[in-house]
Design brief:
The protein is α+β, with helices and mostly antiparallel strands. The protein has helices spanning 55-64, 96-115, 134-150, 161-169, 216-228, 251-257, 260-263, 269-281, 285-299, 303-315, 340-346, 348-365, 385-395, 408-424; strands spanning 4-9, 13-20, 23-24, 40-41, 43-46, 53-54, 70-73, 86-89, 92-95, 121-126, 155-160, 177-184, 189-196, 206-212, 237-238, 247-248, 322-327, 334-339, 374-378, 400-402. It folds into three domains: 4-163 and 407-424, ATPase, nucleotide binding domain (Nucleotidyltransferase, domain 5), CATH 3.30.420; 176-216 and 348-402, ATPase, nucleotide binding domain (Nucleotidyltransferase, domain 5, 2-Layer Sandwich); 239-346, no CATH class.
């Protein structure tokens, strides 16, 4: 009997489960080296031409090779971005769909091996909105579909991730409820307002879907921008030859430095040439030292390790007033405090943007916060104190339920896949 593979293809982590008309599996083992083998880190690494590693093995190989080669994380964020079409890897050009297709092919092969069946049908989750612009959202879905077909899938269906979480959460209800599903991942924050009954819900019960491209990576980027990037030249001053104006590093370039995905791509020639010129144009001795650290960060491909240190420091704030951000590499060592109050201050704008998207979703649903009975929070970013407090302010602590941060979406996708199989049988 042919199965449908459900895939939660995340910016940071990916999971899979399978369904038939009469059965659903739990999350499948995708990465035997991971602390939780059902979670595959969405990391892709190429140590040499046409050689690829995935997940924990990618990370281990990257460190074993002394950060040589090309490592990619958070690639999913580029799906709605028309300016990113692909990149050269060891002299071979790969489109974004090629790279994402390799990750999806790894998921397909691991799941097929676990189930003893070559899986060709898939139900794939996606953010409520890849981008606020409808055309870019549809473009991202089309690129995701192309990547899935490159991975070997022949029959495809798609489901918004917060709707998938609703399919899982409804199974826990014992009475009708108006529920807000809030899914905070690595790349997006997604919301669904839905009227639920224990026996399930229909498409018309979904009152509104909304979201935005701000989540875990953006919070890491705020730490990078305010605490770390100045060590790598984000605040330098320079003067171009024969120019009279004192210039600052372009804001667009600083934004790329502060993005886990974009920083890994700054090794392109057009950027490295500009950074080398800055060595000659910069003003002041400390600027030169910062630029030297920046060149080492990029040329030695240390961006992944740096953002790992940032993420660990962010996680370390749980339950304490201050953690430390420690990153070690010759001539680039950083050991600085990360006070919770400071993190809260410079990530305030991100929380406000998330809340604005939530407010708009509630308005579209025609439901007040008082009318919401329960809030189902999923995703790792839901654990941030500032996010929790913003939700409590609007809805009250009693309504909030943290629900399987990493497994709710994949289990809901499996329920949705089973529903479609039953209807089609």
């Amino acid at each position: 009997m042919e199965l449908c593979l459900a895939i939660d293809f995340g910016t940071s982590n990916s999971l899979a489960a399978a369904a038939s008309p009469g059965h659903r599996t739990g999350p499948l083992p995708l990465d035997p080296l991971a602390p939780d083998p059902t979670i595959l880190r969405s990391v892709l690494y190429s140590p040499a031409r046409q050689q690829w590693e995935y997940g924990e093995e990618a990370i281990r190989q990257y460190y074993d090779h002394g950060a040589d080669g090309r490592i990619f994380r958070s690639l999913k964020k580029f799906l709605p971005d028309p300016s990113f079409q692909g990149t050269q890897v060891h002299g071979v050009y790969y489109s974004l769909e090629d790279l994402l297709g390799r990750l999806l092919a790894k998921i397909r092969s691991q799941a097929s091996a676990a189930l003893g069946q070559d899986l060709k049908r898939a139900m794939i989750g996606h953010p409520a909105l890849f981008a606020p612009d409808a055309e870019r959202h549809q473009k991202a879905l089309a690129r995701l579909e192309k990547a899935a077909r490159l991975a070997g899938f022949e029959e495809l269906a798609f489901c918004p991730e917060p709707v998938a979480a609703a399919y899982e959460f409804v199974q826990t209800l014992t009475s009708p409820k108006t529920v807000l599903i809030a899914d905070f991942g690595g790349g997006t924050s997604d919301f669904t307002v839905v009227r639920m009954r224990p026996e399930g819900f229909r498409p018309e019960d979904v009152l509104a879907i909304g979201g935005l491209s701000i989540a875990g990576d953006a919070f890491d980027g705020s730490i990078m921008e305010h605490l770390v990037a100045p060590h790598f030249g984000s605040k330098i001053s320079y003067r171009v030859p024969f120019g009279s104006n004192i210039l600052s590093l372009p804001k667009g370039l600083v934004r790329k430095m502060c993005s886990p995905a974009d920083l890994l791509l700054l090794a392109r020639q057009e950027y490295t040439e500009f950074f080398r010129q800055l060595d000659q144009w910069s003003l002041g001795g400390e600027d030169a030292a910062c630029l030297e650290r920046l060149n080492i960060l990029i040329e030695e491909r240390q961006g992944y390790q740096l953002f790992q240190s940032i993420e660990e420091a962010k996680k370390g704030l749980s339950g304490v007033a201050e953690s430390r951000l420690n990153y070690t590499y010759p001539t680039c060592e950083i050991d600085i405090p990360l006070p919770k109050d400071s993190f809260r201050s410079f990530s305030e704008g991100l929380v406000e943007s998330i809340c604005k998207a939530l407010d708009e979703t509630m308005k579209d649903a025609g439901v007040s916060y008082e009318q919401v009975d329960l809030v189902c929070c999923t995703g790792g970013t839901a654990r941030l104190d500032a996010v929790q407090e913003a939700l409590e302010k609007r809805l009250g602590r009693a309504k909030l339920q943290e629900h399987q941060p990493f497994h709710a979406v994949i289990q809901g996708l499996a329920v949705r896949a089973q529903e479609l199989l039953v209807k089609g049988s």
